[in-house]
Write a structure and sequence with these properties.
The protein is about 70% helix and about 0% strand. It is mainly α.
């Protein structure tokens, strides 16, 4: 089953409300509550699988989270949840010692044409860059990581935008140690 983004607003609202209160629950209790909500949807529902993955991820169980994220993506997760799943999957893989796979996923995500993404997905572009920078550091590509992070930061500054963007690009072309 694919996630069309047109799910039951009642279910979506209850999921959002539960996430707002995550800190009020212990990890196991939170995962149980998410699982109960997920059980209201078909077993192969991509959105429900994603929410279960996110619950495992947010409560310190990245191995289990990866399984849910991969299943959700395989089931056709779309829209904002798809982009979140890729970011979260890549982050979990990095934390599990697989930074090369994280770089691969996030590079592909970063390379998606902006016109194929909705506004919510485009808004997560800095998150894609931030998690890609972390993965690049873990693979020994520090200059690329710094360039990416600084390039993502440049548009947010009240001043020095052009300078910082220029220096970020220069990191990729200047020899090490300069």
């Amino acid at each position: 089953m694919t996630d069309t983004g047109l799910g039951d607003d009642g279910w979506e609202g209850r999921v959002a409300a539960l996430w707002e209160k995550i800190d009020a629950y212990g990890p196991e209790d939170f995962r149980t509550r998410i699982a109960e909500l997920a059980a209201e949807r078909p077993e192969d529902d991509a959105a429900a699988l994603f929410e279960r993955g996110a619950a495992h991820d947010s409560t310190g169980l990245p191995v289990e989270a990866v399984r849910y994220y991969e299943r959700a993506l395989a089931r056709g997760l779309s829209g904002l949840r798809r982009r979140r799943a890729v970011i979260q999957l890549a982050s979990s893989l990095r934390n599990l010692g697989r930074p090369d796979r994280s770089v691969e996923l996030l590079t592909a995500e970063r390379d998606l044409p902006a016109d194929r993404l909705d506004a919510g997905e485009r808004a997560l572009a800095p998150a894609v860059d931030a998690f890609l920078a972390l993965a690049l550091v873990d693979t020994g590509r520090d200059r690329e990581a710094a360039a990416l992070a600084l390039g993502a930061l440049a548009p947010l500054l009240p001043r020095y935008n052009r300078s910082l963007a220029h220096y970020a690009r220069a990191l990729l072309t200047a020899p090490d140690g300069s």
